[in-house]
Every structure is written in C-alpha cells, then in structure tokens.
Amino acid sequence: MNTTLLLVQTLNGLQLGVILFLVAAGLTLVFGVMDFINLAHGVQYMLGAYLTATAVAWTDHFGLGLALGMLATLAAGFVLEILVYRHLTGRDHLEQVLATFGLILFMTEGVKMVFGASPIAMRTPEILSGSVVLMPGLLYPVWRIAIIASGLGVALLLWLLVARTRIGMLVRAGSTHAPIVSALGVDIDRLFMIVFAFGAMLAGFAGSMAAPILSVEPNMGDGVLILAFVVIVIGGIGSIRGAFLAALLVGLVDTLGRAFMTDILKLFFANSSAAKAGPALASMLIYVVMALILFFRPQGLFPAERR
Q1: Element (H or E) spanning 135, and its range?
Q2: Which pLDDT score, from 0 to 100, does residue 305 have?
Q3: Residue pLDDT, tens place only, 112-126
Q4: Which of 60, 141, 163, 283 has the fewest C-beta atoms lying within 10 Å of its C-beta?
C-alpha cells in the first residue's frame, strides 16, 4: 500500500465527508425537528450548484457569485417551504415521501428546461486554483483543501448556533416539545420555516463547493442524497454532532474502500477473484458499516437527546 496514495485518499475522504455533512446537517435538522422526510433535499444541493454557477458566470467573481447563489438558494428554500412543505408537515410519512419524490421530478425537469440537460462547468477562483505541496513529491489541489476547511468552519459555526444561541435553544426544544414551545408564545411554524430554509442553504452551499470538481447537472443530487440518509441513520436522527462524525466516517470508508479494497482482498484471495470482488464489495462497504452500527446501536452513534 503506497503511503502517498493513502494520504491523498484520506484527504479525499475528508473532503467527501464534509460535503456529506453540509447536506446531512440540514436533512437531520428537518427530520429531527419537523419529523419530516424530505426526499427532495438532494434537489436543493443541485439547485445551489446551478444558482451559484450562474451567478459566478454573471458577475465574473467567485466570492460575489457564491454569496448571490446562497441568497438565492435560501430564498428558494423559503418559497418551497411556504408553497409545498408547510402543507405536508404533520402528515403521514408515506405522503411526505410521495410528495417530495414528485417534487424531485418537477424540479429536475424544470432545471432542464431553464439550464438545459447538458452538464455545465464552474471554474475555481483564481486564488484557490493550482496545487500545494503537502510533502516531497505530493501535490494536492488547493480547492479540495478549501472544501475541507470551509466544511469544518461551517460545522463549528453550526454547533455554536445550535448549542449556544437562543434560536438554537428553540430548535432543540421544538424538536422534542413542539406543543409546549408553541404554548409559550413561539411561532413554531416560523421556526420550522427558518430551519428548513437554512437546511436548504447548507445543501446548496455543499453543491456550490462541489461544483468546480464535479459537473453541474440535473441529477447530481441523487447519489449525495442516498449517502446523506446513510449519514443521519449512522449518526443519529436530529444530532448535528452525530451527522458530522458519521459524515467523516462514511466519506473515509467509501473513499478508502474504493481505493484499497481490491489490494486488501489480494492478500487473501487470488488476484482474479480479488479484482472481481473488490469493486463490488467497496461499493457496498458503507451499507455494511451502517448495518453493523445499527445492530449494536439502533438509535445511531450519537442520537439527539430527548428529555
């Protein structure tokens, strides 16, 4: 096993982990606070990438384009909550699943009509282009390091917001005792609207940060959504800390598994058998990990506290 390759893949795993956290954080807040299953959360990831790519091309400035893209994603979150999600809150989970699946189809086709079905590219900002020397003979893209740093920064800010501010206290209280919080004079519907829109913006930010690496295309949120659900199940529904640690775990397991599973199997089986079984086992490794964790801790690693 090559040490340089191990370091590179570990950094790639961390990068995937922080992207998954940005998506899963909003998803776990909406699920934990509102008891709402939102299959269309991946659409907000995709929408954030499209809006930011469009804003960057329009302004010819990455920072300004990112800010405009996030404001547009936040506004889209408010609009969707008012027009669609508010009418589904409190309904049966099956109705929520069917309605949000329909929203996926509607939004995907809408994006194709506006932006076209072909992938579009978003350039990295000039200051963050190129590579940095991590060790002799090892170069790593600056933008990928920026993704890791920004994800960690957002995680810290989100923890401070949820754990150390009044609105965070209301969110935590609303997730366990919504009727009591409402009886104390808090507009619980407005609180839920803020949580949903903020979660949409987090997913959009994840799409914006991933856009310079991946192609911006209508179905880009599908795979991320599946991994985000794995993250919140492993970490514990409604838990920001659980989402963060589970996202890093999933990112590392998935990336390192795809990179080294075949080589590991070659230690025990013939090369031909390992070459066939390695990719298949690597693709299902995170689900095996999820099954094992849920067998021993059905509530997830760090379930949200319920009082």
Answers
A1: strand 131-135
A2: 62
A3: 998 888 888 888 888
A4: 60
Q: CB of 48 within 8 A of CB of 204?
A: yes
Residue 140 has pLDDT above 80, yes or no: yes
What does the pLDDT average to over 55-72? 91
Strand-strand pairing, 131-135 and 138-141: antiparallel
Q: What is the DSSP letter of 137?
A: T
Number of helices (H), then strands (E), in the chain: 11, 2
Each domain of the chain, given as residue ranges in start order, spans 10-218
Residues 104/43, Cβ–Cβ less than 8 Å? yes
DSSP state of 305: P
Burial 196-219 (b: 16+ CB within 10 A, else e): bbbbbbbbbbbbbbbbbeeebbbe
Q: Which of 151, 174, 172 is nearest to 163 (CA)?
A: 172
Centre a 10 Å sphere on the Cβ of residue 113 and count the other Cβ atoms it contains: 9
Residue 51 clears pLDDT 70, i.e. is over it: yes
Q: Which residues contact 137 (CB under 8 A, 6 or more apart)?
A: 4
CA 119/CA 54 separation, integer angstroms: 13
More confident residue, 167 or 115: 115
DSSP 133: E
Report the pLDDT value the prediction gives residue 195, as an integer from 0 to 100. 84
